[in-house]
């Protein structure tokens, strides 16, 4: 497959792994964190502890190269409640205790609908849990999130990492 003049492996050549943090080597965790940080949408200081507390981590490889990540994580209560409050749906925050996030696909691999594979694997790794929320600033994530039952909640709000960018809150029913 050719993308941007480069030969790319097809998605059938990729290796998808879903694991609990306790089942990962330190090297694999470091690679996971590095790719997530490279996307520029996380606090690098809080990421290590959140990775350790995650329910499921998903990694997508092309051979030995990690190029995609996703997770179902346990956010801090204050973070979760703050996001729901900012979206003006604060009363429902405690119905969504888990967060789908860290969905990253390296630029060289985009355009192959890999976000859906990552989301599906993360949700499966979490046992199909309901009561999960997600946030995104990327309109291209609207379709994949909707495909898995996520619905927009409240109003978009400024990101705490870059207040010139709005986040949209999505939730997957807890019932």
From TrEMBL:
Keywords: Transferase. PROSITE patterns: GNAT. SUPFAM superfamilies: Acyl-CoA N-acyltransferases (Nat). Pfam families: Acetyltransf_1. The keyword Nuclease does not apply. One of its GO terms (molecular function) is acyltransferase activity, transferring groups other than amino-acyl groups. The keyword Metal-binding does not apply. Residues 19-172 form the N-acetyltransferase domain. It comes from the Bacteria. This is GNAT family N-acetyltransferase. It comes from Tsuneonella suprasediminis.
């Amino acid at each position: 497959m050719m993308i941007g003049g480069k030969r790319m492996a097809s998605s059938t050549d990729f290796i998808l792994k879903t694991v609990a943090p306790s089942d990962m080597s330190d090297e694999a965790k470091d690679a996971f964190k590095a790719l997530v940080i490279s996307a520029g949408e996380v606090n690098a200081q809080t990421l290590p502890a959140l990775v350790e507390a995650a329910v499921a981590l998903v990694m997508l490889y092309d051979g030995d190269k990690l190029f995609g990540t996703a997770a179902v994580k346990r956010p801090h209560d204050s973070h979760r409640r703050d996001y729901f409050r900012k979206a003006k749906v604060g009363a429902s925050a405690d119905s969504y205790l888990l967060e789908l996030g860290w969905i990253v696909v390296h630029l060289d691999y985009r355009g192959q609908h890999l976000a859906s594979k990552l989301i599906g694997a993360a949700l499966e790794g979490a046992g199909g849990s309901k009561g999960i929320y997600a946030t995104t600033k990327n309109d291209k994530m609207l379709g994949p999130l909707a495909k898995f039952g996520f619905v927009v909640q409240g109003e978009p709000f400024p990101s705490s990492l870059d207040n010139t960018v709005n986040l949209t809150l999505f939730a997957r029913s807890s019932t």
